[in-house]
Write a structure and sequence with these properties.
Elements: E1 2-6, H1 12-21, E2 27-31, H2 43-59, E3 64-67, H3 70-83, E4 88-90, H4 92-100, E5 107-112, H5 114-119, H6 121-129, E6 134-139, H7 143-148, H8 155-170, E7 175-179, H9 187-194, E8 199-202, H10 203-217, H11 219-222, E9 231-235, H12 240-250, E10 256-258
Parallel strand pairs: 1-2, 1-3, 2-9, 3-4, 5-6, 5-7, 7-8, 9-10
Helix pairs in contact: 1-10, 2-3, 4-6, 4-10, 8-9
Length: about 260
């Protein structure tokens, strides 16, 4: 199975991208809804949660792991890779590569949780590959709870997005990395407010491309993955709104099962 975890249900946008790029592959998803958001937690706590989530996926049949949480990817990916003997993917590097594949000049905006932005992970990786790139990063902590609560088309959400994006719009960025897997659910209002000339980079879609390419190049790993159209979704807390939001993200009905770490 392809194992995917996130701090909440936002990682289901990555699940949908995997379903589109790798149809038929079995998927095991864990959303840590009881302990979200990770973006406001300390690095030590985020790393602990990432290790627990990865262990759950491994013990339940995952042969590869995708860290769909940008906060966990920016803090805990090295620890996860060092602790578990299987391929581990995350959403940061593929998004960075996509941003740098856009035409020059590279004026790149990044929005994410406080933990992701504070880590500086996107700017560090972008600058390592292209020192001349300009990176403007902004934390947008209210967007995750808005998505989790299903406030997707409200005037309040639109006003918050406009306020968050204003500094990036004035800097005339050319591309915008959605540095949180919850944000693609708000891609339409984000794209509208940032302007037509800005390319939106969905980290979940980018990592799906990376995984598909990896499996094509590594048939020995691909043969370990079952392909029975079997998808299992677990969360650490269930609410009616989570189930509604999950349906919105996957664009199909989904059954969430609760399990605590």
């Amino acid at each position: 199975m392809i194992g995917i975890f996130d701090s909440g249900i936002g990682g289901l946008t990555t699940v949908r991208a995997i379903m589109q790029k790798l149809p038929g592959y079995d998927i095991l998803y864990y959303g840590d809804t009881a302990r979200m958001p990770y973006g406001s937690k300390s690095p030590a706590t985020v790393q602990q949660y990432a290790m627990e989530n990865s262990r759950f996926l491994l013990e339940n049949g995952a042969k590869i792991i995708i860290i769909a949480c940008n906060s966990a990817a920016s803090i805990a990916v090295d620890a996860v890779k060092a602790s578990f003997d299987l391929p581990v993917f995350e959403v940061v590097d593929p998004a960075v590569e996509a941003a740098l594949a856009t035409p020059l000049p590279h004026r790149i905006g990044v929005i994410g949780t406080r933990a992701t932005i504070t880590s500086g992970i996107y700017e560090k990786k972008i600058k390592a590959l292209n020192p001349d790139a300009t990176v403007h990063s902004l934390p947008c902590p209210l967007l995750v709870p808005l998505v989790e609560e299903g406030w997707l088309d409200t005037p309040e959400t639109t006003r918050i997005i406009k306020k968050y994006l204003h500094p990036l719009k004035t800097r005339q960025i050319r591309s915008l990395i959605l540095g949180c897997t919850h944000y693609p659910i708000l891609e339409k209002p984000i794209a509208k407010k940032i302007g037509k000339g800005v390319r939106i980079i969905n980290s979940g879609s980018c990592v799906a491309d990376t995984v598909a390419r990896y499996l094509k190049e590594h048939p020995e790993t691909d043969t370990l993955l079952t392909k029975n159209h079997n998808h299992r979704f677990y969360v650490s807390d269930i609410t009616e709104q989570f189930e509604k939001s999950a349906k919105t993200m996957l664009q199909e009905s989904v059954s969430l099962s609760q399990i605590r770490m």
